[in-house]
Amino acid sequence: MRNPGTIGSERARLDAFTVTSDDIRFRDQRDLMERPFFSLSKSRRTTPILYKANDIEVQVFGMPEHGMATIWDADVLIWAASQIVDAENNGISTSRFFRFTPYQLLAAIGRARGATEYRLLKSALARLQSTVIATTIRNGEHWRRQQFSWINEWEEMVTRSGRIEGMEFVLPEWFYRGVIDRSLVLTIDPAYFRLTGGIERWLYRIARKHAGHQAKGWTFEIRHLYAKSGSLARFSDFALDIRRIAARQPLPGYELTIECAAGSEMLQIVATKLSTWPVEKPVNPPVTSGAKSVDAPVTSGASSTGDQAHESEKPSDSKRELRVLNFNNLRESNCSGQQAVGENCPQARQTFKTKPHARPYAQEDVP
Taking the alpha carbons of 348, 39, 31, 209 in that order, is the dihedral positive or negative? Predict the structure, then answer.
């Protein structure tokens, strides 16, 4: 029997996928890992992300009431993708219409299950629903752009005492198709959910997507990473954050090295162990997310305009190839003619140990 509240909603036309599995391998959607779909700060963002790379466009708009969905809110989508793939692997039919308990979701992603976390979950669902995405990724032959929100609609079931016993939401068709296609999802380490910084989380997804499990790694120009991030921070602050992350080495399964090549500051990402393949270990005992409120500010550095970017990253197999490649990347970027680091390059050499450059590209694994 359908909930009377679903009459006239999309849920009335879909069969519910009731979540039952608590022991799942975590999967992420490749398109979301590679491009700037989320705010990297917990402070409310309404400045749009405007990203362009060749024929790929991503535009993300946050509504003033809730702000743009954050990279922490994306945990909901990672959990949903993981549930879908796990169910399909076990011959269970899935749907865009999810039915679950908040306990299942929060426990899976390593969060506490107190009143604060339930409130933050509802705020996350509100941001996911109110954020509007327009993109040309995975469009049909005669269609140019799709527009959608991360969640079409959601609802909670509450007892008379105020206890939340269940939740429902409907995922957009664009996201669901990208999960059903196994070539478009990758396993991720459950330790990802313990990363506290927005740039750390974003950088892990970049590392997992490009460097994968291969020992050959991947090298990025930091200014190019800045363009891919959609960050509102100043470039100098963003570059400093990357250097600090490289010094701390917090990314599970990956080692980061900063070097200079042809006057540009480079970040090399190399897999250190197969900690993300396969994902067998459960998430550590849940802890609070650390958020005081849905709008608690975390490293702002905001400017007043949307971000635009052009990408052309590639792996390299020698220092000479690396320098030539990334000099070309610099020329093709939005900041054409500007040095990515300038006087910071000598400082980077002194601060971080030099490592061998990435080897030639090898086909990345798929789940």
Answer: positive
